[in-house]
Specification:
Distance between the termini: 25 Å
Low-confidence stretches: none
Radius of gyration: 23 Å
Strand order of the largest sheet: 2-9-8-7-6-3-4-5
Number of domains: 2
CATH superfamily of the largest domain: Type I PLP-dependent aspartate aminotransferase-like (Major domain)
CATH class of the largest domain: Alpha Beta
Number of helices: 13
Oligomer: single chain
Order of helices and strands: HEHHEHEHEEHEHEHEEHHHEEHEEH
CATH topology of the largest domain: Aspartate Aminotransferase, domain 2
Helix content: 25-40%
Number of strands: 13
CATH architecture of the largest domain: 3-Layer(aba) Sandwich
Largest sheet: 8 strands, mixed
Length: 430
């Protein structure tokens, strides 16, 4: 097949005609496909069902210290759960607070605490300083950007490179005292699927921001989500590097079991230095007495430790690998010859990123919608929902069934080719 950019206008016109005929066939199929969000499917959720039966008798609800998990108390979480989540975060148990089921909830609260009260080392609430900014590596996680936009931060885009955010840009931007933090998904980043290199982690740990209470929001959501057990990416320990640099307060760490146990009923954690933990406990204590300690105990009893979690995640990986392979095989077979798109091949996480020709992402997503498939909105992975090049599409292949994934991937490729061929034909006629 001739690459689209090498085609004559007549060839492009014929290709558009053929693609539109195929597109109409898909439209007539009455499809209802959803690849819009990174959700676990029912078979993944079923893997953790035995966890629901670990607490049956009164004595089962007692923690290892004899505390009744059904009662008030233990704002920071039960010891067993703190230890479990600390293993995932590669922190010490006393550096972790276990909350409810949502790490996004914790991140929202931590941004809010900074906005109203600041953080240790600073001069009080960030809101007092007028125009405040937050660094947003992109493409990135849309809900991160939405949180800081909600509080009125100016969202500052930072390009993502093959090994993490553009650190030359980050090091320059943090010289501005209005910059209060940076969002990071360091392992199997959403949506690119890349893992931050050792160099990037070290440079983040050695930042010298002008704002004394600048914080790295380290959302390690996919810490244990390898697609091939034993062959996953390795992420350098940021806290260890911060301690070497003498800057242990500069980061807050987040994770959850949302994509390990139950998306709607997992446990989440925030970690940090002694100063940060004391600060968070001070403020958390005004809004809650504790997280759901029964659920914390259920998770700790069932998984026991990180090794137990990794054994569980091997089962999940076996379910997810065929879905990722189906998408990647289809992209290679149907899009590569056209020469109008590029993509990563992540070794873990929940997403596959697709970059089509500049100016074609919105059209591709709109065509998919017209044919009965929902994707994450084009531009959603950028601050304010605006992709300056209109090219990035996030593929979430986890929730749909395998046969649906295959159909969806073929439809996506068709729509991408049609959008790009139309664009090139339009340019040729201009």
């Amino acid at each position: 097949m001739t690459a689209y950019q090498q085609m004559t206008p007549a060839q492009l016109a014929q290709e558009v005609k053929v693609l539109r005929e195929k597109f109409d066939e898909y439209k007539n199929m009455g499809l209802k496909l959803d690849l819009s969000r990174g959700k676990p499917d029912g078979s993944q959720l079923d893997l953790a069902l035995p966890m629901m039966g670990v607490l049956k008798e009164t004595q089962d609800f007692m923690t290892e210290t004899g505390f009744d998990s059904r009662n008030y108390g233990l704002l920071e979480g039960i010891p067993e759960a703190r230890r479990l989540m600390a293993e995932i975060l590669e922190l010490e148990p006393d550096e972790v607070i276990v909350g409810g089921n949502s790490s996004l909830n914790l991140m929202h609260d931590c941004v809010g605490i900074g906005f109203v009260h600041g953080y240790p080392g600073g001069k009080g609430g960030w809101y007092k300083e007028g125009n405040i900014k937050f660094l947003c590596p992109c493409p990135g996680y849309d809900r991160h950007f939405a949180v800081t936009q909600h509080f009125g931060f100016e969202l500052v885009s930072v390009d993502m490179k093959e090994d993490g955010p553009d650190m030359d840009a980050v090091e320059e931007l943090v010289k501005d005292p209005a910059v209060k933090g940076i969002w990071c998904v360091p392992k199997y980043q959403n949506p690119l699927g890349i893992t931050f290199s050792d160099d990037v982690v070290r440079r983040l740990a050695n930042l010298s921001p002008a704002a004394p209470d600048f914080r790295i929001f380290w959302d390690n959501a996919y810490a244990v989500h390898d697609l091939e057990p034993g062959k996953g990416d390795k992420l350098l320990n940021l806290m260890a590097e911060l301690k070497k640099a003498g800057k242990p307060d500069m980061a807050l760490f987040f994770t959850s079991t949302s994509k390990i146990s139950f998306a709607g009923a997992g446990i989440a954690a925030v970690g940090g230095s002694a100063a940060n933990i004391a600060w968070l406990k001070k403020h958390f204590g005004l809004q809650m007495i504790s997280g759901d300690k029964v659920n914390q105990l259920r998770h700790a009893r069932y998984f026991k430790n990180k090794a137990g979690i990794m054994a569980h995640m091997e089962k999940q990986a076996a379910l997810l690998r065929p879905k990722f392979e189906a998408v990647l095989d289809t992209l290679e077979r149907e899009l590569a010859p056209a020469g109008v798109a590029s993509w990563n091949k992540p070794r873990g996480g929940y997403f596959i990123p697709l970059d089509v020709m500049d100016g074609c992402a919105k059209r591709t997503v709109a065509l998919c919608s017209e044919a009965g498939m929902v994707l994450t909105g084009a531009g959603a992975t950028f601050p304010y929902g605006v992709d300056p090049r209109d090219r990035n599409i996030r593929i979430a292949p986890t929730y749909a069934k395998l046969d649906e994934i295959k159909t969806a991937a073929s439809l996506l490729c068709l729509c991408a080719k049609l959008a790009c061929a139309e664009k090139l034909l339009e340019q040729a006629k201009a």
